[in-house]
Structures are given as C-alpha cells and as structure tokens.
Amino acid sequence: MAAVILPFERPVAELIDKVRKLRALAASDPRFEPELARLEEKTNRLARELFADLSAIQKVQLSRHANRPYTLDYVKRLFTDWVELKGDRRYAEDAAVIGGLAKFHGRSVVVIGHQKGRGTKENLKRNFGMPHPEGYRKAIRLYEMADRFGLPILTFIDTPGAYPGIGAEERGQSEAIGAALGAMARASVPIVATIIGEGGSGGALALGVANRVLVMEFACYSVITPEGCAAILWKDGSRADEAAAQLKITAPDLLQLGVVDAIVEEPTGGAHQDHDDAAVRLDRALWSTLTSLDELRDEELVEDRYRRFRALGAYLA
C-alpha cells in the first residue's frame, strides 16, 4: 500500500515512521527501548496538539484518506469464519457493498459494509465505494436473512454516496435505498452501525438504521459532501471548508447532536497509521455495544430503534 500523506499530517506521519523503524530495532536490541519510549511520547504529544486543532474540512480529508482501513480490513481483524454472500438475487452482484456471515467473539453475526478499492483497478471494481441498487438489495436480502435466523447485524459505513448514474436510477436507486431503510427498521435483532470513513447521504443511511451508531474519531457523516453543499449554496465548490464547518459532520458534532452514540478513539495519527490498533479499539467498542443490547427482546429492539430515530432533530425550547 503506497504511503499517502496529507500536508497537515506530515510532521506526525514522519515521527510515526521513525517510531516504526526504532521499534523494529528495539525488538532485537533492548538498548533502543529508552529512546523508543521518548520518541513515542513525543509523537503522541505532537499528535494530540496537532489533531486537536484540525478544521472540519481536514477531518473530512482524513475520513477519505486512501490508507484508512476499509470494511474488509476490519473483517479480517475482527471476525472469524467469514463467509461472503454475493448477489441480490434479482439483477447482479455489486462489489461496492460486501456482506456475509461471520463469528464475532464466538457469536454468529451478519456483517454488511461499503467497500472502497485501493488503486485504480480495484476502485473501478468497487465503483469507488458507491453502490448501485443491487448493492442495497443485496443488503436487504442479508437484513431479512439475519432477522429470520435471529442473528445480530453489524454494518460498516464508508461511502461518498449512492451511485448517481443513469443505469442506477433506471433500476430504482431511491426505491432500493428506501427499502433498505424499511428492512433495517423492521428487523427484530440487534443492529450496530459503525461509521469508519465518510458517510455520505442516503447511500450511507441505508446501512445506518441501527439501535446504536458508533463513529471513528476522524470519520464523518453528512447529508451531502461539503463540496456539493458549497456548489449548491454559493455556486463555489472552493468554499467547501466553510460548508464542512456549517454542516456539523465531524464526530464531536455528531455526538453532541445525538446522531451517533459513541466515538471510537483512533490510534496516534489516525486509523490509517495503524490498522491493527484501530481494529483493537473498534473491537472493544463493538462488543461492549452489542452485548448491551442483549437485554432487549425482539419487539423492544424495534421500538428502541424507532425511538432513537424519532428523537433526532427534536429540541425543547
């Protein structure tokens, strides 16, 4: 995986690279351990200072980082006995949405997530993480299967949005998204959604009607991209930074507004710097959240989900 470094993260990224090299030396020679400890402390301090002052648009850029872990990166680290299920049984297979059966801490679950690609060839295969209607209909098939067999559903959200092409619209893109929302709302099993990258519009929400929604520290969740918002409001896409701030789409804003239920802290420098550590942190949050829903019966899970979304946007004067 080629290293991609954003301008504002370069000081931290360079230190993290030095830490990796020094850690490899310390593994074979203990004399390097004191120096490693000092460098790790310096790196953590610089990362806290730098990332504490990131603007909204910089966090959006991190959520889109080419080296961030995608759904399949988490699948291979969080789950065992993974069996991918393909196709919507109506039209075709859509590689922008992956789903299947797996074991999570020994518990059978259904896993569904958006999947982007790395490099041009895989991105074309995955359509840059933008699903067609058949991707959402595959998700619906898996929601209904999970409901039938009483399996918890874990979803991973990471998409710029649903694919807006002519073919997708002709095959019923909006209907497929709406049907996915309905299938998730009706499912009488625990559903936990995690926003691992960028969560764009209805294309993200089709995997987001959950009892609990987690968000990675530098992920975002929006009704429209900052660039799209700026182009519509001001006819000027270069004002995306202003739009990002006004949209309130970063993790702290989402938590304050009640759109998400918890923020999962990322490793030093972001999840893209250490996929393994990011997975460990998400594993703890996911398992804790999933087990907290065990006390709810089938009908209570549906009602809990209904109340959660009805409360969004409700304010007392």
Order of helical and strand elements: HHHHEEEHHEHHEHEEHHHEHH
Total DSSP E strands: 8
Shape: globular
| Biggest beta sheet attributes | 8 strands, mixed
Q: What fraction strand?
A: 15-25%
Helix count?
14
Helix content: 40-55%
The CATH superfamily of the largest domain appears as 2-enoyl-CoA Hydratase, Chain A, domain 1
Rg result: 20 Å
N-to-C span: 51 Å
Structure class: alpha/beta
**CATH architecture classification name of the largest domain:** Alpha-Beta Complex
Class of the largest domain, according to the CATH hierarchy?
Alpha Beta
Q: Which fold name is given in CATH as the topology of the largest domain?
A: 2-enoyl-CoA Hydratase, Chain A, domain 1
Protein name: Acetyl-coenzyme A carboxylase carboxyl transferase subunit alpha
Catalytic activity: N(6)-carboxybiotinyl-L-lysyl-[protein] + acetyl-CoA = N(6)-biotinyl-L-lysyl-[protein] + malonyl-CoA
Pfam family, one: ACCA
Keywords: ATP-binding, Cytoplasm, Fatty acid biosynthesis, Fatty acid metabolism, Lipid biosynthesis, Lipid metabolism, Nucleotide-binding, Transferase
Describe the structure.
This protein is α/β, with parallel strands linked by helices and 317 residues long. The chain folds into 2 domains: 10-53, no CATH class; 59-311, 2-enoyl-CoA Hydratase, Chain A, domain 1 (Alpha-Beta Complex). It has helices at residues 10-28, 33-52, 56-63, 71-78, 120-126, 133-149, 166-170, 173-186, 201-205, 226-234, 240-247, 251-257, 275-292, 298-310; strands spanning 80-84, 97-104, 107-114, 153-159, 191-200, 212-216, 220-222, 262-264. Strands 1, 2, 3, 4, 5, 6, 7 and 8 form an 8-stranded mixed beta sheet that branches. Helix 3 (56-63) packs across helix 11 and helix 6 packs parallel to helix 8 (173-186).
